[in-house]
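hey m, so remember when u said the tokens were messed up on ur end? i reran from scratch. heres the input so u can diff it against urs
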Amino acid sequence: MDTSTPPDRDRAVDALRAFAVLGVVLGHWLVTALVADGGRLHTSSPLQYLPRLAPISWAFQTLAVFFLVGGHVATRSHTAAQAKGIPYHRWLTSRLSRLFKPVAALLTLWTIATTALLLSGTDITTVRTLAKLALSPLWFLVVFAALTAATPLVTRLNPLWPLAVVLHVDLLRFGFGAPPGLGWVNLAAGWLVPYTLGAAWTRGELDRPRAGWVLLIGGTAATAALIACAGYPASMVGVPGASVSNLDPPTLAAVTFGLAQCGLALLLRERLRRTMRRPLVWAAVAFVNLSAMTIFLWHQTALMATTATGLLFGHLPGLHTAPDHLTWVAARLLWLPAFALALAVCWAAFHTYEHPGTPRRSRTHPRTRSRAGRSRIVRTHRSSDRATPTGARHV
């Protein structure tokens, strides 16, 4: 994997993308609880009972890094396509095809599962909870696909413009009592901020360390002020029962927090490039990138499959009990390997949908098969840039 990677590939981009994917997965596994209560399953969160754990969400809410990387590589890809005379529709189709083909497998399985649960008499609340949790990753793909389609229009957009939109929307919502539905304008404007920062990265406007420090310090200070003085929630993920969520839809605090994350990501680029020169580390990062869509789409299903299997043995701590004590958190940490094992099963079953063009291994001489396997890895790894969970391509 290391020797077959093109020497001009920016491995820091892959590292940031892998970090963002794993951050989302671990964040969901740590703060999403399916509580068994009276024959029903409903979602809960330790942040609902233990608000002092809000800093956990700061480490694992990595969506801004997704959009930063996505804007960077989509801009590079579109520029290269223009130079080669590739029409816009062909460029867009190639970028989105791998993004949405694995979704069909997820929708098919959960359509069958939901139908089976309803026919078996499962409580409708439980079915709704499971289906909503399983399909929750799809909102991100829809937003990212829309921004990808708009890449030719937003590559020159100054990030301050969408940031100003978010500021005014929040001012109207929280300061002047505007309808809460107005906040959904931020679903596009909020994530457009890091996306356009990625485009600025491509143009070379963020190469100096000063840019990263300004984003990191400015974003951190603004987020702290909004939480301490303006009443924004400290948690950067949604908390069941909370009156205001920083993520659903995005608030100004979520956007400024994302700016701080983007600044840190930019400052870590050189260190990541050096670290990625280690073959074993690079192989792990490359594997996550090759499987990013599968991991992203199926990690919630892995959590639910483990929870459902555990019900056969009663209400297990950290799995089915209310997350209202630190002992639940300790028990949940012990369940992470089980979630990872369930995700590995999902990967084995569905990762081929992420690379549908990969040929099956033929019965050839071992040496020939080995060379073919290495060649297939190179082709697949290069094609993986067409559309990851961030729709990213940077080759």
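this time it looks ok to me. Residues 88-119 form the longest helix (32 residues). if urs says something different then somethings off w ur setup not the seq
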